[in-house]
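Chain A, query sequence.
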Amino acid sequence: MFVDQVRIKLAAGSGGDGAVSFRHEIYVDKGGPDGGDGGDGGDIVLKASRNQNTLANFRYKKQLKAQDGQAGSKARRHGKSAPDLEVDVPVGTVVSNLEGQVIADLVEDGQTAIIARGGKGGFGNAHFVSSTRQAPRVAEKGEAGEELEAQLEIKMIADVGIVGLPNAGKSTFLSIVSNARPEIADYAFTTLTPNLGVVDIDGASSLLLADIPGLIEGASQGKGLGDEFLRHVERTKVLLHLVDIYNDDVGKAYQTVMDELAAYKVNLSKKPQVVALTKVEGVDDEIINDAISSLKKVVKRGTSVMAISSPSKSGVKELLRELNKKVEKANASAGKSKLRSKLPVITLRGEDNAWSVKKREDDYLVTGRRIEKFARRTKFGDYHSEQRLKDIMRRMGILHQLNREGLEAGQTVVIGEPKIGKLIY
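Chain A, predicted structure.
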């Protein structure tokens, strides 16, 4: 079963808690702290694989969960870090969050991307020994692993995308020129899934062609097969636009598909293309020439317009050579774009140490990336752990600002929004 789009929940592993432990002597505190650190939680890693061609494995498996790290223990024993959860997906898989932001784009075999990071293990009390703190009773909680809901979709990577109305002859053409064996019939919507085929060009080069299922008017809004397969056109370098010569109006047939390509969320009509009339076997040359003239009135200037017969292979070799030229030109342009994109770009990074204090009706709110990170590692309700967080807030200047805002004894300070924890001063 071909599945090219799924929604899935991802949950990386949480870090293990650090341990509070002391070597056993008569005076326990003098024995020295020996609590070990917790292990890190496992990441969720997606890996592009040529051995996968569908997302069907995720059809009934709606969640990926990595293992948690183990807690630290006495004698400075560190908890074992969890292994990463590595999952194979088809080459061409795009991972986005539910807001549509792309998290990863896996376009090469073997390429990997960490989609959700595991939480770091908490430090044990042995980690906090200093000249002034010989017997710390504080240890950190392990950080929670990242969790998100993501959309996985396949966008085929092909040199040439074959487009046209249903029954334009796309599948027949692909079966003639390549090793692909798509289903072929004389009714619309025979092709329900994209097909790929490798085409040899005069023994000197090859092209990867993708047969995109037929488009109809309104496809970009979901009519017919809808825009389910338009995403596969996004990556193609060149379009081969096939038009059935038996259409009553070949110009209108061409324009119908172009309008849908233009209406897609990414304007696909601007891609370089070659236009070819199909099924010309047995058709008079005068009719063929009239049809070519009609098409030239609507296609972009400079676009090649040809006529082919897949069964007889008339004009097919010439068409493939023209496509190869277009692809080589597109590759050259892409190479220049890559060189330009390698120029260094200087940007301002968000300041991790930045924080803010907000006085509210019943409490005070403290937010900031770094202080929230420390708060997530704090065992709220544990005196020593809370005292450590208060010390950190004092060193960062947060306590000074709280006092300026009017903080009094017994008042509540909330860390993070949404709330991570609270301290009573």
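The mean pLDDT is 85. The radius of gyration is 31 Å.
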